[in-house]
Amino acid sequence: MGDRQQAVDRVDVIMKQVAQVSTAPDLTSKELCQRIQRVAHHLETRLRRELAVFGIEPWEIELLASLRRVGPPHQVTAGSLQDIMQLTTGAVTKRVAALEKKGWVRREVDAGDRRQVLVCLTDEGEQRALEVFATKTETEARVLSALDLDTQRRLNDDLRTLLIDLEGAVRT
């Protein structure tokens, strides 16, 4: 019985082409980055499709989820949202304004520091988020279903190590 040939993905094909013209001694990191980018693209595409049924974009559910995760009264400063979501000040302002028009968030001046603006989750925004959380979670699970749970845990640990190196550890 002969050796079974391992299945090839599009990244293998791309990397074979890159290896022919590259002078780099090792292309493992490039190969891994290509796969991470492609998986992220597939996840984003599927989330958009699944969430479109609810009339909500992935960034909208992420902002609502960020507010919900902080716990009651579900409000944070715009600066905190910027850190949580890794966005620029302008992007946060634009996104908050869009969700404010939908009635899902509101802005309030912080009574403790009048210079700060708080972004607050409305009851309607929380209800909207709860309606779609399960769909988002199920879609994420389906995208990663080719990997067993032990592999997913190991990959999580490895990516956590990488993120801590890139972003620093977070105090809890």
From TrEMBL:
PROSITE patterns: HTH_MARR_1, HTH_MARR_2. InterPro entries: HTH_MarR-typ, Tscrpt_reg_MarR-type_CS, WH-like_DNA-bd_sf, WH_DNA-bd_sf. It comes from Streptomyces lavenduligriseus. SMART domains: HTH_MARR (SM00347). This is MarR family transcriptional regulator. Residues 29-168 form the HTH marR-type domain. Keywords: DNA-binding, Transcription, Transcription regulation.
